Amino acid sequence: MTLVDTRTPDPKRLIPGATGDWEIIIGMEVHAQVLSQSKLFSGASTEFGKAPNSNVSLVDAAMPGMLPVINEECVKQAVRTGLGLKAQINNRSIFDRKNYFYPDLPQGYQISQFKDPIVGEGKIIISLGPDRQGNFEDIEIGIERLHLEQDAGKSMHDQHPTMSYVDLNRSGVALMEIVSKPDMRSSDEAKAYMTKLRSIVRYLGTCDGNMDEGSMRADVNVSVRRPGEAFGTRCEIKNVNSIRFIGQAIEYEARRQIAILEDGGSIDQETRLFDPGKGETRSMRSKEDAHDYRYFPDPDLLPLEFDDAFVEALKSDLPELPDDKKARFVRELGLSVYDASVLVSEKAIADYFESVAEGRDGKTAANWVINDLLGALNKAGKGIEETPVSPAQLGGIIDLIKDETISGKIAKDLFEIVFNEGGDPAEIVESRGMKQVTDTGAIEKAVDDIIAANPDQVAKVKAKPTLAGWFVGQVMKSTGGKANPQAVQALVKAKLGIEE
Amino acid sequence: MTELTNLTISEARAKLKGRDITAVELTDAYLSAIDAANGALNAYVTVTPEKAREMAKASDARLADGKGGALEGIPLGVKDLFATRDIHTQACSHILDGFKPKYESTVTQNLWNDGAVMLGKLNMDEFAMGSSNESSYYGPAVNPWKAKGSDEKLVPGGSSGGSAAAVAAHLCAGATATDTGGSIRQPAAFTGTVGIKPTYGRCSRWGIVAYASSLDQAGPIARDVRDAAILLKSMASVDTKDTTSVDLPVPDYEASLGQSVKGMKIGIPKEYRIEGMPEEIEKLWQQGVEWLKDAGAEVVEISLPHTKYALPAYYIVAPAEASSNLARYDGVRYGLRVDGKDIADMYEKSRAAGFGKEVQRRIMIGTYVLSAGYYDAYYLKAQKVRTLIKRDFEEAFHAGVDAILAPITPSSAFAIGDKELAADPVKMYLQDVFTVTLNMAGLPGISVPAGLDHKGLPLGLQIIGKPFEEETLFKTAHVIEQAAGKFTPAKWW
């Protein structure tokens, strides 16, 4: 692959060094486990968390004479992902063998795609911001390719004093390796890229994106250079398994390389590991130790071929992707770009929001989801998947405001009750007497009582009409917040003789 | 009892159906013959008498009910390369010591489904790498043929040497074999038997220990053309477990026997007249031409210009695939393990002890030609040669040729332990010079006995056909068989 520089150096992304500014160049190879019932070339289950070696077929264990048979669902998932990345879909691709010895690689080779991948060039738009002015910056990150390959098994070194054990449950599970172009220029961009990629595969349902289970992991290529100069020598940081670690690893690695270069040294091309405990990267193997994988086309598998109709059928069934959804929220629901961005950031949040917004005012729904629901979840340390308030419950609360059964203020209390205790919002309002008082007789009496009890304030309000607010507050207090605020306001003003 | 083992499959089939003989009698006759001969011929590496009698009994029960498949009660030998459930399957290699699979290869399952009886596993070159059966961990199988006036033990050819020796010596009614570069056809020629390598994709490779996946193809070795046709009909099938197998109906090959070759155009490739070829091979070839002409075929000279590159290209492609296919024999999960101080040491010790010299040589050649910096010069170029070889054949067939007649081996069977061949592996590789082209092109080829040389040893001729036109091969080979007669070794064991 030829590396092409697609970006103009941007002063706000440069890192100052002792001898001048530096620019970081980042490219990523992300391994995403394909969501499928069975493995890439065998019928064994892909279920996570089973007892060691319980999801292993004869093919996965590389028994003599066994042959791989491609799983069509995995092919579909790769094509869907390619479409989601607005990428070139290759109707003909080839599986190659990548040869190396390791105990958790039973065949002695990994079936992968080398020269002719299933998906070619595509792109991802990442959005950075908002900045202090509230603006977002959209940046296009190029995708070089996506290919299908087998995962390896797992070596376990803590099971026996002198021996290692091997678990082949993952052996042969389908992975998509998604390779970006070297288009990222800061750790924030790299984190945004990974976040966006995860969001896309989750929207598509092609990968669960669970980095803590290893369903997604990144090899991060980092190099530094003087702005405008040619690319420097890169180091590859292997198997980084959280977005936060990606940021930390890049920051550490860039500064390590800058320090070496500023000392007059040079960077050795090597593979490094990120140690999350120490927050640093360390050398794993140098270029000289790199394997010669002896790639060649797997003679057990014919070239993978499909026609345009196969791709078109998948395309027509593709769900709406985050960028399109965001644009629609802004265009059709009148949401701000910021609100729309927050809502589409995770598919589960967007789904939740759309369920609440169905038949209701979009902006109101967005405010409740973002400010109240996400705020409360965040405080409770919960994700959207664990929300105690269902979209129907939140919608119920909004409906109660709309039909003036409760006030906005009471609604906040009601939300808290539903969040902590559950229950049907309308029933809670009923049983706990939270209904808004709209009976003017009752409100009039309360207003009269407050006016009668506070002659001093009545005197002052003649001079300063804005003090009417004090009376409104007192009335609301005396009615336990249940009085309709508009009605109270009107009555107070009328009784005190304040002009509208 | 001995005359029972003299029955061909078609003869035995008739007698079994007619209840003139029972499958158990026939099986016992073979088991006794094996007992008596295997010490001398070393054709079997494992005999399965209990399994054989059990299968024969079941066959008799079906036959008694007037039922039974196409091979009901026919005792067969199986090359050790085929996985057979719970039975020795080691590709005649030390590295697969003790390996008994929990699965049955598709080809052997097809045979058992048709009622065949399994006698045991047959000797072969280790991992099917060899042309003399001398690379077997279990020692060489011995050719039932001997030169006139000589007591020297001869090779039965390879890699399917055990299959050929067992069929020629009547230690089974027929045998499975595989052909990657000539491993069915050359041993058949050396033993006076009939062997067919069908079109690549005709038989499933599932459950056959892989040597070179793009070249490996299963086929039968049998006593005559009819038996070969009966066996291939049963062995061939499409298989969802092998995506390189082809979904085409399997014709009744036997029905093509006796069909006329009148008007057929037979090509004689001039490039097969290689330097140093013995005159009697040339004469035999000419004799073949005459027989076919007499039967009404038209014979034309053709050119397959890239033939000379086939052998070197084959010895790049096959080892390349083998080096990868054999990576799974690492001492981790099954077979031989020699402990070491760490994992790399264990790999090295296990593979050094487990693989014989020839296998190690081919793994090294294969590893070399796939290495960075050499891939383009060797592997890629060899693949291009392969395309050209394929095109040579396509052009000949396009020009109207129906089948091609060629020699099959540059000589008759040679001595076990031949010093010249042992000293120079390339000389041994030259055994494959007439056979590898077909594997490179994926085409079917049949080896049919055509005569004896001056030493009284059998020689064969090869008929090469269009993809999936095995019927043409059977009917043409049948014409030669009718003219040349059949050849049986004098019993000395």
TrEMBL record, chain A:
The organism's place on the tree of life at top rank: Bacteria
Catalysed reactions listed for this entry: L-glutamyl-tRNA(Gln) + L-glutamine + ATP + H2O = L-glutaminyl-tRNA(Gln) + L-glutamate + ADP + phosphate + H(+); L-aspartyl-tRNA(Asn) + L-glutamine + ATP + H2O = L-asparaginyl-tRNA(Asn) + L-glutamate + ADP + phosphate + 2 H(+)
Protein role: Allows the formation of correctly charged Asn-tRNA(Asn) or Gln-tRNA(Gln) through the transamidation of misacylated Asp-tRNA(Asn) or Glu-tRNA(Gln) in organisms which lack either or both of asparaginyl-tRNA or glutaminyl-tRNA synthetases. The reaction takes place in the presence of glutamine and ATP through an activated phospho-Asp-tRNA(Asn) or phospho-Glu-tRNA(Gln).
InterPro entries named in the record: Asn/Gln-tRNA_amidoTrfase_suB/E (IPR017959), Asn/Gln-tRNA_Trfase_suB/E_cat (IPR006075), Asn/Gln_amidotransferase (IPR018027), Asn/Gln_tRNA_amidoTrase-B-like (IPR003789), GatB (IPR004413), GatB_C_1 (IPR042114), GatB_Yqey_C_2 (IPR023168), Gln-tRNA_amidoTrfase_suB_CS (IPR017958)
GO molecular function: ATP binding; glutaminyl-tRNA synthase (glutamine-hydrolyzing) activity; transferase activity
Record keywords, A-Z: ATP-binding, Ligase, Nucleotide-binding, Protein biosynthesis, Transferase
Designated gene of the protein: gatB
Swiss-Prot/TrEMBL GO biological process terms: glutaminyl-tRNAGln biosynthesis via transamidation; translation
Family: Belongs to the GatB/GatE family. GatB subfamily.
Cell membrane as UniProt keyword: no
Protein name from the UniProt record: Aspartyl/glutamyl-tRNA(Asn/Gln) amidotransferase subunit B
Annotated ranges, domain Asn/Gln amidotransferase: 351-496
Coiled-coil regions listed: none
Binding partners and assembly: Heterotrimer of A, B and C subunits.
EC numbers on record: 6.3.5.-
Source organism per UniProt: Rhizobium rhizoryzae
Gene3D superfamilies: 1.10.10.410, GatB domain, N-terminal subdomain
